[in-house]
Amino acid sequence: MAVCIAALVWMGYLWYSANQTSAPSHQDPEELRTLLKLGNEVVDVPHRIVVKWQGDWEANGNQDAYEAAEELSQSLNLPGVQQQTEGGHLTYRVVDTKNGVNVRFNWQEISENRSYIIIQMEAAGDEQLSALTKLQSEYGQALHENGIHAEWNASLQGTVKGERTAGSTMKTVEEGIFKNMAATKAESYEDATTVSNAYEVPTLRSGIQSGGKVLNMQVAVHEDQSTGSSRVTIGLPVITIEY
C-alpha cells in the first residue's frame, strides 16, 4: 500500500510540474457543479468525487519543512501532522473528516529545501457537494496565504450497468457530454479494456497544456470483465486518480 501511495504522490508531482506551463487553473465552484451534473447524467451510480489541491513549497530560511507542514495543517483546522518515510522521502500526513468529507493532507520532502503538497478531499454524492465546495475554497485560500502556489483538479467516478464494451460505453458517455457542452476530442487512448479521451472545452476555465492545445476535461472508461459493468471517470482538467 505504501508503494502505491508513493507512486500516486509521484504521479501527482509530475502532473503539477507539467501544469506549470498550462493555462491558469482557476478556483471555480461552478466547475464542481458542472462535473457533478455531468456525472449524474452519464453514469448510473456516481460514488466518488475527489478534489485535490497540489503545489510545492520552497524553504525561505525561516522554517524547516516540518514546521511549515505543521503550520499549514493548523491553518486548515486539521490535527497535528504525523511523520513517516515513504519512498525514501520524509512525509507529513494527516487524515481527517470535515462535515462528511474525507480529507487527506500529504506533505512530502522532495529535497532539502523543497516539498510537494497534496490536499485531497473526497465526498460521496451530491449531498456533500456544498461542504466539498466550501473546503475547496477555504483550502485554496489557506495555501495561498502560506505562500504555496497550488493548482486544483477534480475527478468524479461511477459505474454504468450492463455488459458492454468500454468503447460502446464511451460512445454513450460522449453523447451526454456533447449534449451538455461544446467539447472537441483532442487526444485518445484505447486498449482491450480501457478507453480514455481528452477534450478541449472552452467553457471550462481550468486547463492543462498538451502539444499546443489546452485540455479541459478527460474521460476514461474501464470495462470490469468480472462484473460486466464499466467504471467511468471524468476529470477536470485531467484525471489524477486511478481509473
| Sheet with most strands: strand arrangement | 2-3-4-5-1-6-12-11-8-7
Radius of gyration: 18 Å
**What's the CATH class label of the domain at 2-20 and 50-154?**
Alpha Beta
Mean pLDDT: 87
Strand content: 35-45%
Tell me the overall shape: elongated
- The CATH topology label of the domain at 2-20 and 50-154 is TBP-like
Q: Which stretches are low in confidence, meaning pLDDT under 50 for 5 or more residues running?
A: 1-18, 20-26
DSSP summary, beta strand count:
12
What is the tally of helical segments?
5
Structural class label: alpha+beta
- The helix fraction, in percent, is 25-40%
Give the CA-CA distance, first to last residue.
Answer: 17 Å
Q: What's the CATH architecture name of the domain at 2-20 and 50-154?
A: 2-Layer Sandwich
Elements, N to C (H/E): HHEHEEEEHEHEEEEEE
Biggest sheet layout: 10 strands, antiparallel
Organism: Paenibacillus rhizosphaerae
Pfam families: DUF1779
Protein name: TATA-box binding protein
